[in-house]
Design brief:
Blueprint: E1 2-3, E2 9-11, H1 20-44, H2 61-84
Helix pairs in contact: 1-2
This protein binds magnesium ion.
Length: 86
């Protein structure tokens, strides 16, 4: 379960990795998402957002990058938990 600093539950354990290999796969997947978000921010600007999305789902490219960095951080925390079991 992923919880933000206010205590709000962000994600369930439904797709949580069950072993170190899945945890590492998840880290790599999130690395790709960070790279994609960084590329969009560099191409279109941090304050820009995807005009193809409905207004209610839009976020700025800068916010998207921060969100993806947070996702990456959470996968690293999970990977660390599996590494501590070794
Ligand atoms: Mg992500």
């Amino acid at each position: 379960m992923i919880i933000d600093l206010s205590g709000k539950v962000l994600k369930s354990d439904k797709y949580a990795p069950v072993d170190i290999n899945q945890a590492l796969d998840h880290v790599i997947e999130e690395c790709g998402e960070v790279i994609a978000a960084y590329g969009k921010m560099r191409r279109f600007g941090a304050a820009s957002s995807n005009p193809e999305l409905p207004e209610s789902q839009r976020e700025t490219n800068g916010d998207a990058l921060l969100r993806e960095l947070g996702d990456l951080w959470n996968t690293l925390v999970k990977l660390r938990e599996f590494m501590d079991e070794i």
